[in-house]
Amino acid sequence: MTNDRRKFFSQVMLLGGGLVFANQVFAKTVDKDIKKIGVIGLDTIHSQMFTKDINEGSLSGRGYRVVAAYPHGSKDIPSALKMKPDIMKAMTEMGVKMADSIEHLLDQVDYVLLESNDGRVHLEQAKKIIAARKPCFIDKPMAQNLKDVEAIFAFAKQKQVPIFSSSSLRYDANVLKVKSGSIGSVLGAEIYTYAELEPNHLDLAWYMIHGIEMLFTVMGTGCEKVIRFFNPDQELVVGHWTDGRIGTVRGIRKGANTIAGTAFGENGIASLGPFAGYGPLVKEILDFFDSGNPPIQQEETLEIFRFMEAAQRSRESNQFEQLYQK
Asked: How many CA atoms lie within 13 A of 227 on its CB side?
């Protein structure tokens, strides 16, 4: 993990706060009136921070509680495997019980946060959740590639189980202001983000997806083609929308870094980001569990994966690649 990423995670940990509940308090607190959440995958800091918000933070009065977790996600990503023991310990200290299988977890909960760090395991794990008819949030990346994302959505539709996937950056306060019309119609946007690569995933799906989700939140769907300029330290991905608008995502692997950007509108120019915590996304997840209505339509998530796959092809071809190939 880079020094920038270590600094980033340290800042995130400070945002969590909250008291640590002992197991005996947990036993008294969880009763039949609590809406029980299970977490799958304790190999990402998201699992710990989302649980802290729900069990001990500002969202603890919503009637939800994370009660169980299945710790296993990635089998071979070093950073994920290194994180897991400490996150398991932190979850146990918050009163979360460890399940020895996904099936065991599903028997104990009403809703699921699929947090496994490795998108390669998401299709297999999501199918078990959906087959059990548990509403589910799937953390980024929703899967390792477009084919698996399509399969997850198709199975959820077949079983009529609500699901959605999102980056926390989609719910940045400045992003939401622009989306709601603070600068009028958005004519273009420039985003910059961390851009770590992981060889088993689409290049952009591993970390740049945060910036791509910001871009699509303010620009909307309708991107038709992508060109990508790549080198080991940085890259630039340019998307061309069908109405002529242009959006870009700069990926940074060397030097100063954060996740932020600028939106250009009919009536003004607005800053986007920087990252300020997971709370707004977690609130959106609980709203989704309340209503059963996904806040992000599958068509947008599918277009984001088409965008990333087209960018992958463009890295090889050095030219524009169509999102929707004929």
From this structure: 6
One-letter identity of residue 98: M
**Which amino acid would we find at residue 323?**
L
Is residue 83 domain-shared with residue 207, that is, in the same domain?
no
User: In degrees, to the nearest 5, what angle opens at C-alpha 185 toward C-alphas 262 and 287?
Assistant: 80
Q: Which CATH number belongs to the domain containing residue 88 in this structure? A: 3.40.50
The string of DSSP letters for 231-280 reads: ETTEEEEEEEETTS-EEEEEEE-SSS---EEEEEESS-EEEE-----SHH
What's the pLDDT band for 326 if we cut at 50, 70, 90? low
Of the candidates 102, 103, 92, the one whose C-alpha atom is nearest the C-alpha of residue 66 is 92
CA atoms within 13 A of residue 163's CA, in its CB half-sphere: 35
CA distances (Å), origin 315, targets 12, 132, 203? 32, 40, 10
Rg (CA), the chain: 19
Which residue range is the domain that position 207 belongs to? 169-278+304-322
CATH number assigned to the domain comprising residue 239: 3.30.360.10
Q: Is residue 207 located within the same domain as residue 312?
A: yes
Amino acid at site 22: A
pLDDT at 24 over 50: no
Confidence of residue 120 (pLDDT cuts 50, 70, 90): very high
Domain count for the chain: 2
Query: What pairing do the DSSP bridges indicate for beta strands 234-241 and 223-231?
Result: antiparallel
Distance CA 203, CA 5 (A): 17
Say if residues 225 and 320 touch (Cβ distance below 8 Å).
yes
Question: Is-contact 218 191, C-beta < 8 A?
Answer: no
Residue 54 lies in a domain: yes
**What is the rounded distance in angstroms from the CA atom of residue 37 to the CA atom of residue 96?**
10
Alpha carbon 304 to its chain's center: 12
Whether 83 contacts 71, CB under 8 Å: no
pTM of the entire structure? Answer: 0.89
